Amino acid sequence: MTATPDSPTGRWLVTGAAGMLGRDVLRVLAGAGLEATALTRAELDVTDPDAVLAAVRGHDVVVNCAAWTNVDGAETDEAAATAVNGTGVRHLAAACAATGARLVHVSTDYVFPGDGTEPYAEDAPTAPVNAYGRSKLAGELAVLELLPETGHVVRTAWLYGAGGNNFVATMLRLGAQRDTLDVVDDQHGQPTWTYALAERLVALGRNRQAPAGVYHGTASGRTTWCGLAREAYRLGGLDPERIRPTTSAAFVRPAVRPAFSVLGHARWAEAGLAPLPDWREQLAQALTDPVFTELAAAAGKNSR
Question: In sequence order, what are the residues at sequence separation of 6 or more whose Cβ sits closer than 8 angstroms to the Cβ of residue 54?
Fold first, then answer.
């Protein structure tokens, strides 16, 4: 008899397993005693439908962390970004539909225009302002179309963690090289720790009663990039005043960034789960990891 996904013997597949979020999903699954197959980008090309079907077959739950994440690169090669974030996700959804597996797919705040003043609800109209956002929206639509009863889209944003390159690590690393850093203070969002998000993705995948559809997997509360950097410095024992506020105009990028990426979290109640904790609480826990404490220590040596 096939095991149910919430049983200890249910089989999970994690795509994009070498990435920052994928690594934490595997950590959470291992801690819960759940059997998982980990496939990296090199091991599974999601643009190959036959390979995707073969990989999904025999699994109960698929957590898709595979993605084209180069936001600026998507502006110059939108077709390549869409092949992974759109068509590749369609292949995963189709394979799950064919085999009966449930899909937890990670998406992004970039599907919204970023011109709001109140948190975007899960059913708010989408209107991406860049190629990356359009590619990710294509993936969302594929999941919702092909898996209306068993597909979960979890939008997240401003991710950081110990297992990869990210804003928090960069700020601490640069602190060892520079006395002060100018950081954008006019973009608003919800810094989200990958391990906390991974716990929520696994909880959603284990809950067979959770309604299908869109969820927002970001931390509670809100801040700016400058606010995040200053809080990381404060928690790391560094002087927050080393972080100086500036505007987006000082850092012109090929892809437009949404100015407002704050998401609402009402949908979690339908799954019997609480929203993720406040971003400050998550950051405090994350910074106890040796990866971050070593970076903070090095930045502290540069204090004057």
Answer: none
Number of domains the chain contains: 1
Instruction: Check which CATH number belongs to the domain holding 51 and give it.
Output: 3.40.50.720
Which is the catalytic residue, given 110, 120, 132, 160? Answer: 132
Q: Respond yes or no: is residue 160 known to be catalytic.
A: no
Residuewise pLDDT in 10s, the chain (304 residues) = 233 444 444 899 999 999 999 999 999 999 999 999 999 999 999 999 999 999 999 999 999 999 999 999 999 999 999 999 999 999 999 999 999 999 999 999 999 999 999 999 999 999 999 999 999 999 999 999 999 999 999 999 999 999 999 999 999 999 999 999 999 999 999 999 999 999 999 999 999 999 999 999 999 999 999 999 999 999 999 999 999 999 999 999 999 999 999 999 999 999 999 999 999 999 999 999 999 999 999 999 886 5
Domain assignment present for residue 240? The answer is no
Evaluate whether residue 284 is within a structural domain. no
Within a domain: 250: no
Distance in angstroms (rounded) separating the CA atoms of residues 148 and 165: 34
- CA–CA gap between residue 104 and residue 153 (Å, rounded): 6
Domain that holds residue 194: 11-163+190-221+257-277
- As beta bridge partners, residue 78 has none
The pairing of strands 11-15 and 35-39 is parallel
C-alpha–C-alpha distance, residues 60 and 260, integer Å: 36
CA distance 186 to 167: 16
Q: Is residue 227 situated within a structural domain?
A: no
